[in-house]
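Quick one - first record:
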Amino acid sequence: MDRRLNKPLILLMVAVALVLGLLLGTWTGIVDKIFGGPNPRTIATESLESMRAENRLTVFAARYVSVVTSGEQQLGGLLSSQRTLILPGNVRYELDLSKLQPNDVTWDKPTNTLHVKIPEIEVAGPDVDINAVRQYGGGGVLSALTNANQQLDQANRDKAVQDLRGQATAAVPMQLARQSARVAIERSFAMPLAAAGFKDVKVVARFPTEGTDEPSYLDLSTPYEQAIQQAERLRAQERK
């Protein structure tokens, strides 16, 4: 077919598309007027399903360093050994969005407020930075005669993991993680509502345990041995 004949045909197709678009826009406006426009509950439900599909959301991350020392003495202090461990670890504060349920999202029409009950913070890690792990001490007669170093190293590992977990779940980082989670969830619901024209809607996200003495997190910390194995695997992959 002659290309000169294609141009009028293309222009006609564009014109038809524009007309259909105008008719569709007009019909949508009529439907909105009849049924009261977009429904905030419907928009919130769609946002909820979209967030559930994301599965997990990291709302905050922090790095902690634990420095612990263990010692052993025998024969009234004549024989002694001491070991120090420096253990850094990265911790993630996550939300399991798949736990969000329809009844966790409620619409308060009189106050124009969308209330969202969000799942508890989950503390994941620590992910040990194996390149930064340091151990010092040892030597002496006690270390030479016994397996004191191995025992002290194990004791240090146990104490360091507990210390990292304690740092990660302290009041200040948990408060920062929860605030970050609220902001992320509120923004995820507010943006679609604003795009649909509900710019005056207020979104309030809260944890179920807020206002109670119950802990507001789940501890998913990785045991020291598993964290070291994961770090070694990552290090081996980087060398390839």
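second record:
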Amino acid sequence: MATRKKKSDQPLSFRELKRLKPIQPKCDAPELMRINLGSFTLPDRDPPSVIKDWSGDNSYRIVAEIAGSALEKFGNRAITINPLERIPETKLTRNLAEGFQELDRLQGNYPSYAKLNYLPEISQLDWELMQRFRKKHKKEDRPTNVFGTDQRYIYNDSSFPWRTVGRVWTETGACAGCTIGPRLVLTASHCINWTSAGGAGWVKFSPAYYNGNGPWGEFNATRVLFWNQAQGGLSDLETAFDYVVLVMDDYIGNVVGYPGYRAYSDGWNGDAVWQHMGYPSDLTSTQRPAFQASCVVSSTSSQSLSGQTGLVMGHFNDITGGHSGGPAWGWWSGEAWPRVVGVQSAEASTPAFNTSGDNEFGGGLALSSLISWARSNYP
């Protein structure tokens, strides 16, 4: 039987969020803020130079001199754009995470110099482009799991907490993710390129990424923390544990902030109170973020691994490629940050309005213990 929550434990509805006024910055932003424009490794030569570019008064290029023989021999492998080609991993175990599974809710971090919007802002241009796309494909079959009318819309908003969501990408594709600690990023396990020799391939994250640009630049993962490596088709067990925490090479969470976390309760099944963000391949070729309000989790089922309980959270919200790893979160009264309850994991191979044809988030107490362990060990 589902456990009903007290009224004070109920997330805020879309109608309640619409009535809330944005919170204006309480102080000025730091005088200087660092932007990470990229990382790369060069052969043993002189360091690169920054030169003025002809295209604009404030345009610049980074140039480096590379031996012609190296370029002829190695081509694009002469320069390593992603210096961390393989990053180490930490697989959590029952003993390693002892005590952390009891923490079913974690605080977020709202930077006082940032504006807070309870709903992301949409531009008129994005709205018109989406309407054209949907009209063009109205009578065509598309490889998407959109149930009924597509409820997503594209946004461009660098206020809190939308700035905490960003694009995650590897050498094989793009997903979504969000900051979840001072230098931590949450995304899906199946988005990671797990290597047979151990560890994972390079992973990058850019908060508030929009059309090739992230206001705070790009950051590299230096370690991946997980319960289970999800690869190939996703079983219920893989979906229930389909999340990882990335340890980044800079404290980006301290700059843009990060949401909190709360363990999902089946007492919320059927409530239209969640928000979900991703970088859809169909609407934007994974280049612009999409938002969906009033999301509903329709069903839950539990799976066990390493003494932990993970949840498969079935839903019929609109999901396509590029949404994977994106958070599902809700707002609670009196709090200045949303709380993540799940991570987008799976799309049904044959969409249908039943538990075999639904989309699925992964979540549960196992996600809480992973985040709390990561925050404790990588503050």
